[in-house]
Design goal:
By secondary structure, the chain is mainly alpha-helical. It contains 6 helices and 2 strands, in the order E-E-H-H-H-H-H-H. 59% of the residues lie in helices and 3% in strands.
């Protein structure tokens, strides 16, 4: 919390005591006399507090407005969930194509009728379609969990994200500089 810093004028400090002023709007009752030794070094401490006293940050990260339903990380996690669901459907389809052609056709037909973009609704609808589809949905849930935990290269994702953002920023800045610094020939 913010605190009011009181500076004591030299006229109010003697060698033996200091008189503290009352806050504005408060009627003084009695003057307080404190030993001057209590204020030795106060000016130095006050300056240090003033220099280093800023609004206390709640976090060292940027504030992102407009994410009432969750953090940007949560939105990214939802996107990744949908992506992992899409990958799991593709993996299961590839597996079924080689050994269970009938289930492959059923799942392919279901994906043509239902969007894979919303993972939860896709799996919910697949589970409720039929007992055979329920088994396919359970397989998709297992595959997406296993892929996310074991096979997805999270470190590579981080490196690629950093690299792609940096490269895109540099390209955009370079294009802007070339566009704005274009000098027409007088010929």
């Amino acid at each position: 919390p913010w605190r009011t810093l009181v500076t004591i004028p030299d006229a109010m400090v003697s060698s033996r005591c200091a008189v503290l002023p009352h806050p504005a709007g408060v009627a003084p009752r009695r003057r307080q006399h404190l030993p001057a030794q209590a204020f030795w070094g106060t000016e130095r401490r006050r300056r240090r507090r003033l220099v280093s006293f800023e609004a206390p940050p709640r976090c060292h990260k940027m504030y992102v407005p407009g994410f009432g339903e969750g953090s940007p990380e949560k939105k990214a996690a939802i996107s990744l969930l949908n992506f992992f669901n899409y990958l799991a459907v593709r993996i299961v389809l590839a597996q079924l194509e080689s050994y269970n052609r009938e289930a492959y056709v059923e799942l392919k037909e279901f994906t043509s009728r239902n969007s894979v973009n919303d993972a939860d609704s896709f799996c919910k609808n697949l589970i409720r379609e039929s007992p055979r589809h329920k088994a396919l949905a359970m397989r998709i849930l297992e595959v997406r969990s296993a892929y996310m935990k074991n096979d997805f290269e999270w470190d590579n994702l981080k490196k690629l994200s950093f690299k792609m953002v940096d490269e895109a920023n540099i390209k955009l800045m370079r294009d802007y500089v070339l566009e704005t610094s274009h000098i027409e020939d007088d010929e």
